[in-house]
Write a structure and sequence with these properties.
The chain is α+β, with helices and mostly antiparallel strands and 104 residues long. Helix content is 32%, strand content 35%. Strands 2-3-1-4 form a four-stranded antiparallel sheet. A hairpin with a 3-residue loop joins strand 2 and strand 3.
Length: 104
């Protein structure tokens, strides 16, 4: 069972990755699981949430823009990014500043 990420009090950053998958696995699930594991070990990582239906939406939470940039430049992550055309028919990345949050 997935849980909602426990994030600190704002401000912090969210990277929203929206995607539409291509047909077939093409090594996607193994790589996706590895990327979550690897991201969680990066300085400034705060949490992760993901859902997949017709459109997949994954949100990772970060302490700073520098932490996001370091993750983007991570060698293993860059190798996975190079396979994007094998895994996605389209995708969009959005980087957002979280200024407020609430819930229970």
């Amino acid at each position: 069972m997935q849980a909602i990420a426990k994030t600190p009090a704002p401000p912090y950053y969210a990277v929203i990755f929206s995607s539409v998958r291509t047909d077939g696995d093409n090594g996607y699930y193994e790589a996706a699981n590895r990327m979550v594991e690897l991201a969680a070990s990066q300085p400034g990582f705060l949490g992760f949430e993901s859902v997949r239906q017709e459109i997949g939406i994954s949100v990772s939470y970060w302490a700073s823009l520098d932490a996001i940039q370091s993750w983007k430049e991570n060698t293993e992550h860059r190798e996975a990014q190079s396979k994007a055309q094998d895994w996605y028919s389209s995708f969009r990345v959005r980087v957002c500043l979280v200024e407020k949050e609430y819930g229970f």
